[in-house]
Write the structure tokens for this entry.
Amino acid sequence: MTLETIINKDIASLEKESPAVVDYLKQYGLQFHNKEQTLGTHLQLLTEETLEDMGIDHKQLLINLEGFIRQQEGSTIGEKYNVKSITLIGGHDKNGTPENITITLHAGTITSIVGPTGSGKSRLLGDIEWMAQADTPTGRKILVNGDVPDVELRFSLEHKLVAQLSQNMNFVIDATAEEFITMHAESRMVQNTKKIVADIIRQANLLAGEGFDGDTPLTSLSGGQSRALMIADTAFLSTSPVVLIDEIENAGIDQKNALQLLVKKEKIVLMATHDPILALMAEQRLVIKNGGIHKIITTSEQEKLNLEELERIDNKILSLRNRLRNGEIIDNIE
Amino acid sequence: MYSFARKRFLIAASFLLKSISYGELLYVCQIYNMFSYIELRSICLSGTVNILPKGNKNYTSHTANKHKHQLFSTIQVWHNNSNISIIKSPGNQLKQGVSMKLITVSGPPSSGKTSILLKVIRELQRGGKQAGVIKFDCLYANEAEQFNKINIPVKIGLSGNLCPDHFFVSNIQDGLNWGLEEGFDYLFTESAGLCNRCSPHIKQVLAVCVIDNLMGLDTPRKIGPMLRMADIVVITKSDIVSQAEREVFAFRVRQANAKAKLMFVNGINGQGAYELSMLIQQATETVTLEEAKLRFSMPATLCSYCLGETKIGTDYQVGNFKKMNFSEDKK
Ligand SMILES: Nc1nc2c(ncn2[C@@H]2O[C@H](COP(=O)(O)OP(=O)(O)O)[C@@H](O)[C@H]2O)c(=O)[nH]1
Ligand SMILES: [Mg+2]
Ligand SMILES: [Zn+2]
Ligand SMILES: [Zn+2]
């Protein structure tokens, strides 16, 4: 569907065939009384005064309408931009020392990022998000699927590379979980909204310690429930192939399965964390120091074995917590 | 800094230009790409040109043209009398491209305009550039301190009971002259769009609109030309809302403006400010706003209430007003 075909249709058939377009135009305060007129004629006949009241001019209205049509199509056609890998070609650190590395992050893998605050973790993320081409302070370059990406995609919503999830993020809108996820699904133009929304809420319930249903207002979800819903939503609906998880707390959410879900959905997972259990769940970790990638460590067999031990310790602490909560006395810790 | 030959040329040129004001000199030179802003400054500082800060209102394109010819012939004369041949074609040789870029930044109150400007200007300063800010507001503006803290010169204009955007239009040329005099590389205007209908965006001047994720998902539909006519839309406060809300919000912003560049910038930690500063560097230079046009008309404030009426009732409604229809939908 092009702008031209839409413009040449009469209002009556548009209302039947593309109600979304008609609704979109009504948002600007347009009223269609003569249904036989083509949309083009209708727009041509708008007076200066009406346009002024609408707060838009003729040219911009057509540009927006075309954008809207493309938005609608872009997503029904499906993923035009299937990101299988992101390659990072090293630049230099704050002192100008070259990083001398090239790393490729593949879909469905987890990489953790470690390093003190202010060491350059955000800049690294920024470089990926911006698809840097040696045009940021680090001099790094980013390839998508092995190729230099079109830098104009930096400003395209459908091609935002990074989705973020962090401690401080909360749901702020006044809607129930189901209403909002539906809104998100609609903005993605997914085919089967109902099913996806149900899947997301079910997944979120699997990840959250305590269950909740679709009618729960977003703002009354607990920390763990919100986090679980955010992860499930990102896994199913986010356009971004890279998911950054930033220092997420472990209360009230099954982190292992949360990560697994993202991996299953072919996300490239980056995790800024100093929690040893999370860090060792990754295949590799990037050590950031003084604005540069200082080292890449592949999680060793020994580390993976240690992970089991760590999980045992963690479970022990967890059970101590539960005992405390239940009013028990912690006279022994076995 | 300049070669000796160049310096002599500048002095020669400035002699001839004695009769015109600083603003005019800038205007002539810059529209014809004669030489850089910094060079012009040095001409003026040499004392041979009379500095009239506000520019001359009677300065027409006709006089500009006359001055252009004067400049060309000066160069010619000087060139003929010297055996240094650095100046071949004045138009090209002297082109330096260093002059001021004006950027209008608008957005609802508290959307993060000041925070973003502070971060972006810091990036520009790191690159050795100087920037100034003019802040337009209605009743109160506390920005001066924040900007001064990192050495950003700022002028504040309070419109009182005028719409701040109308106030903006009538003051922007003078503001621009201030910026040119100060020798900024960038001049930003910050104005809080209060009526969601007016917008300070000017054709050919880079227009930035700042909105934040907390405003609610319907906001992009409610903001008029300020958002719809912007070249760059900056979305702030992404650090405190969920990814899903960000995506839906941005989707709606896209529906309100299909062609703007969308940027997510964090006003607190500056994430994204470097990238935004790169875009801002691509702005075109603004030498004068005489004859420039707004991107969108501003509504006439012509009802009796604009003029200070406070009483409610049909008798007091005079002028340009509009009535809602409360019976239309009753069927
Ligand atoms: N969390 C968060 N707060 C922000 C961000 N940008 C601005 N703010 C805060 O929002 C408030 C209003 O910002 P300000 O820049 O003064 O808005 P202005 O009125 O548009 O100039 C301040 O308290 C800022 O600290 C952001 O990206 N994230
Ligand atoms: Mg401000
Ligand atoms: Zn106004
Ligand atoms: Zn009025």
